[in-house]
Amino acid sequence: DGMNVLFIIVDDLRPVLGCYGDKLVKSPNIDQLASQSMVFSNAYAQQAVCAPSRVSLLTARRPDTTRLYDFYSYWRVHAGNYSTMPQYFKENGYVTLSVGKVFHPGVSSNYSDDYPYSWSIPPFHPSAEKHENDKTCRGKDGKLYANLVCPVDVTEMPEGTLPDIQSTEEAIRLLNIMKTSRQKFFLAVGYHKPHIPLRYPQEFLKLYPLENITLAPDPWVPKKLPSVAYNPWMDIRQRDDVQALNVSFPYGPLPDDFQRQIRQSYYAAVSYLDVQIGLLLNALDNAGLSNNTIVVFTADHGWSLGEHGEWAKYSNFDVATRVPLMFYVPGMTTSPVSQGARVFPYLDPFSHIGGSAPQGQSKKVVELVSLFPTLAELAGLQVPPVCPEMSFGVELCTEGKSIVHYFNVSEGKEEEGKEGCANTDRCFNEEPAAFSQYPRPADTPQWNSDKPKLKEIRIMGYSMRTIDYRYTLWVQFDPNSFRANFEDIHAGELYMMESDPNQDYNIYNNTSHGRFFKKLTD
Questions:
Q1: Active-site position among 50, 137, 387, 397
Q2: Measured between alpha carbons, how far is 265 from 144 in angstroms, rounded to an integer?
Q3: For residue 177, what is the domain's CATH number?
Q4: Tens digit of pLDDT for each residue in 124-140?
Q5: Can you tell me the distance from the alpha carbon of 150 to that of 199, in angstroms, rounded to the nearest whole number?
Q6: pTM
Q7: Number of domains making up the chain
Q8: Does the annotation count 104 as an active-site position?
Q9: Residue 78 annotated as catalytic
Q10: Is residue 427 part of a domain?
Q11: 96-129 burial, b if ≥16 CB within 10 A, otherwise e?
Q12: What is the mean pLDDT of residues 266-281?
């Protein structure tokens, strides 16, 4: 009788969380989860945009294998009939349930969130979701707009609620059904916020007085950033409040005071999300399930908050690719939990003071493509085999590897291993790396640079992130043959993390990078 799984995935959440060292944010419930979890502080998505990242982490295949770089194809038809993580749990006797945004809706999940392959019952979508982009934000003139910055009075909203509130209610309803059914379950809950529009209950603004909000530490476009690497944040420009600012394309900066407002609302949306997570985990306690349920918490990718003069995702910068990742495994990340114990009492971000440190923390560089094999191992299922070089015809395999062996490594030992490495070339080659990629239609920013359709892709930026550096090559890409040509390099980036943690000083042109090239292209 194995463990249940509660898999929480958040849309566009970078690790601005207390448990990741952020001093401004109020995230007591996620921090409390971290205090009972193994937390990975260097986890990266494989492509910083919703559909490709989600299909990649749910199939344990990289975007070059799913062949999904945009929103417009279903991998089972277009690439290969790959099994998904929920499908694997379902085939192993679990009831699999989806609430909210887990798969990206639309053609990329066959207009059905991959039901019936992945889920035991049809996925739940909150009814209020259809109003997300309506004009529901009250302007200073009292009129309604479709703004980016959108604190609201929930009672005035269509249906009197918001999508994430509905998803939490449905997830709690399902937990209470499952506790009586005595069947193992895999419940995936996908939250929308802090995805734009930044629409959340207005009281959360009180947590973040504007005078406490700073600009990004590096709000300018770096001098040596290749133009192909820049994303022009078109989705933000299309919101009513940003449009009114008349910002020049593609580099024109947003006014400082508006930058602060975006940052303030992103933080407020994170605290609103934290409340939803708190209610959900408290319900897990109430149902008596905290002692036999694994909880995974992560995001599909991050989001730029003005760093490098950029907003949104759509790039290879850490702010776009890095995600929170934590695993609560009762009896493994905590001492055994007795039935009915309170592990996750609800914490109110408006009154809760003081943070809590993660139970265990690993600085090892890991990838979301490793989530599926890791979760399989934690649940006691057979870990899917590693994919062969070409795996289009293989239904069940993983391009990631289980990271369970990182769980019981104490930080001290981790460092020793590195020093004990005498052969520097071998150390360099064996050092864990995360691979991300991003497509572009051209060498300079265009209206479709953020989200080029497959047929428009001409360049692919392949990125390798280790603990010490990020190395990125922008190379010629043929969307018909899906071939990247590493002999036709359009631009490169190299950032050394120790001296340049924010990735502002690209030293690609004044460094020899043969060994980087070899490691990236192997």
A1: 50
A2: 18
A3: 3.40.720.10
A4: 999 999 999 999 999 99
A5: 5
A6: 0.97
A7: 1
A8: yes
A9: no
A10: no
A11: bbbbbbbbbbebbbeeebbbebbbbeebbbbebb
A12: 98
